[in-house]
Design brief:
The structure holds two protein chains of two kinds. By secondary structure, chain A is mostly beta strands. Chain A contains no helices and eleven strands. In chain B, 0% of the residues lie in helices and 53% in strands. Chain B is built from no helices and eleven strands. Chain B starts with a strand and ends with a strand. Classes of the chains: A mainly beta, B mainly beta.
Chain lengths: 113, 114
């Protein structure tokens, strides 16, 4: 079965610094991969998704992620952190459709002034 | 982008009572909706898949008689937590699948059973 592992339950960066949130996937067939952001007591907002087109995917709010098959990774990056980026981030994998989507444990991003 | 509205955002109920949570797709038709449960500081766990006009498909370990799901129209799915107990307290999130793959999520419902 497909799964994702998010390395680091908590990441702390300074405002203006690079953001790097790590996600590795496991799947028997080419997967669809997603990054979501969740603010406190809110649902999930899709940041970006990989659906086998370009390996470098650009999303909203300046985030991007690169699909690396050789490393089975889909790490999320942003060149310069902003205070408003502080939230919980979830990586997710799906093989066929939404009802086989599986989420990682999440990474809490803290941005220090 | 597509909008999914979930109501209520927060509810407190007494143990033994039932609570209904609504999930609406506001600007698209969703033949399939999903219900997730999220415990504090944990990830989302899929509870069930709700298909318009048919019975929901529940994930293993989810009690279908306790978590009743109805998907009566293409824009509305409801989750009813019956005879709620304190251990049912959690954050419940719905998502709806439209034409664009990736699903759209509601804002979640914080259920507290006292």
């Amino acid at each position: 079965a497909q799964s994702v592992t998010q390395l680091g339950s908590h990441v702390s960066v300074s405002e203006g610094a690079l953001v790097l949130l790590r996600c590795n996937y496991s799947s028997s067939v080419p997967p669809y991969l997603f990054w979501y952001v969740q603010y406190p007591n809110q649902g999930l907002q899709l940041l970006l998704k990989y659906t086998s087109a370009a390996t470098l995917v650009k999303g909203i709010n300046g985030f991007e992620a690169e699909f690396k098959k050789s490393e089975t990774s889909f790490h999320l990056t942003k060149p310069s952190a902003h205070m408003s980026d502080a939230a919980e981030y979830f990586c997710a994998v799906s093989l066929y459709n939404n009802n086989d989507m599986r989420f990682g444990a999440g990474t809490r991003l803290t941005v220090k002034p | 982008g597509a909008v999914v509205s979930q109501h209520p955002s927060r509810v407190i109920c007494k143990s033994g009572t039932s609570v209904k949570i609504e999930c609406r797709s506001l600007d698209f038709q969703a033949t399939t909706m999903f219900w997730y449960r999220q415990f504090p500081k944990q990830s989302l766990m899929l509870m069930a898949t709700s298909n318009e006009g048919s019975k929901a498909t529940y994930e293993q370990g989810v009690e279908k008689d306790k978590f009743l799901i109805n998907h009566a129209s293409l824009t509305l799915s409801t989750l009813t937590v019956t005879s709620a107990h304190p251990e049912d307290s959690s954050f419940y999130i719905c998502s709806a699948m439209g034409q664009e793959f990736g699903a759209f999520f509601g804002q979640g419902t914080r259920l507290t059973v006292v």
